[in-house]
Design goal:
By secondary structure, the chain is mainly β. The chain has one domain (23-154, 165-195): Pnp Oxidase, Chain A (Roll). Helices cover 13% and strands 34% of the residues. The protein has four helices and 14 strands. Strands 5-4-8-11-12-7-6 form a seven-stranded antiparallel β-sheet. It has a three-stranded antiparallel β-sheet with strand order 3-13-14, with no helix packed on it. Strands 1-2 form a two-stranded antiparallel ribbon.
Length: 203
């Protein structure tokens, strides 16, 4: 992002040109596979949940990326959530092309058979979200894939006795302005500020 000639204001803010400043964002490992070829892994930071019913995830890829063509043709992928222990492999999968390298073989990561799509997930990632593409939108530098979640596999050790997913135990990572970060301490459930007052609101 260019920082030339910033506009300084009296309130202490500096105005910059438009840029990708939303941060932190989840960093995910997206897996996909061509027929009769080794599965591929791509690191994606432009990813997020965009709908609840049906559950929809969006990922944005540059058309020149190897995985773009695979996902466009196959219409499916798996979103895998990496942990702090996988940060080096996560970074490596984002800078090395799958056109010439078998990333599963080079990283030692293990393909996880999916239940609803043909692409595998990653065993070492605690959450594997199986997705089928419903829509593609060309935005400019990136193409947005809107994909419905078809099923989710989770590491059993992260599920409590009551059946709740305890992601705070997973050690997930986030991405902000070119750097990786571990997620911070627990601050409270969504709506805790209202519940403690015994009130309910419509947003």
């Amino acid at each position: 992002m260019s920082r030339s000639k910033p506009m300084r204001r009296n309130d202490g803010k500096i105005f910059w040109k438009p840029g990708t400043m939303l941060a932190p964002v989840p960093v995910v490992l997206v897996t996909c596979q061509e027929p009769d070829k080794a599965p591929n892994i791509i690191t994606v930071a432009w990813a997020g949940t965009v709908c609840t019913e049906p559950p929809v995830i969006a990922i944005a890829l540059r058309p020149e990326r190897h995985s773009y063509g695979i996902i466009r043709e196959r219409g499916e992928f798996v979103v895998n959530l990496p942990t702090v222990q996988l940060v080096d492999k996560t970074d490596w999968c984002g800078v090395v092309s799958g056109r010439t390298v078998d990333k599963f073989a080079r990283t030692g990561l293990t393909p996880l058979p999916s239940r609803t799509v043909r692409s595998p997930g990653i065993v070492e990632c605690p959450v594997n979200i199986e997705c089928k593409v419903r829509q593609q939108i060309a935005l400019g530098s990136h193409v947005l894939f809107l994909a419905e979640v078809m099923g989710v596999q989770v590491t059993s050790s992260l599920v409590t006795k009551s059946g709740k997913l305890a992601l705070d135990r997973a050690g997930l990572i986030a991405f902000a302005h070119g750097a990786y970060y571990s997620l911070g301490k627990y601050l409270g459930h969504f709506g805790f500020s209202v519940r403690k007052q015994g009130k309910a609101r419509n947003y």
